[in-house]
Write a structure and sequence with these properties.
Blueprint (H helix, E strand, L loop, with lengths): L1 H4 L6 E8 L3 H7 L10 E9 L3 E9 L5 H10 L4 E6 L2 E7 L5 E3 L20 E4 L5 E3 L16
Antiparallel strand pairs: 1-3, 1-4, 2-3, 4-5, 6-7, 7-8
Bound molecules: zinc ion.
């Protein structure tokens, strides 16, 4: 039945097995908003044998990068990423929790060196409990990770 809901795509990325209720955060991580021109489909509360219910996000014409995948792992650790080319799944992998995230998130500490106009790329260490800590000023991200995407 799932196949009917998620129409096959020609080229793009399907992110499956997203924890129920997290699809909108995944969209934010992918930078999907009202200015997006990619064809994006979202299925929420799809029944899943493994998870009970899950969300699925499909982005046509775009292959998501490893940095985006790393951040998705933080909020949806069971997600699987399927890269589709010419209607075939050419790559399928389970996301994995990164040790570090560089260059995507903004440090909320205004006095952090990464906010000082210097050409310093932000860097956050992922702690064992999933907390993100700035490698420069030790600031911990308190809100949903999607809030800090620059
Ligand atoms: Zn910082």
């Amino acid at each position: 039945m799932e196949e009917l809901r998620i129409r096959p795509i020609r080229d793009g990325t399907v992110i499956d097995h997203i924890e129920r209720g997290r699809a909108l955060e995944v969209l934010k991580i992918l930078g999907v908003d009202s200015s997006t021109r990619d064809v994006v489909s979202v299925a929420m509360n799809v029944s899943s044998e493994k998870m009970g219910a899950k969300d699925v996000v499909k982005v046509e014409g775009r292959e998501i990068g490893s940095t985006e995948t790393d951040i998705i792992a933080l909020i949806a650790p069971e997600a699987t990423v399927n890269v589709v080319r010419e209607y075939e799944v050419t790559e399928k992998y389970v996301v994995s929790m990164p040790d570090e995230i560089t260059g995507v998130l903004t440090c909320p500490n205004p006095s952090c060196i990464t906010n000082g106009g210097e050409p310093v790329e932000t860097s956050f260490e992922v702690e064992d409990d999933g907390e993100l800590r700035c490698s420069y000023c030790d600031e911990v991200l308190e809100d949903e990770v999607a809030e800090y995407i620059s």
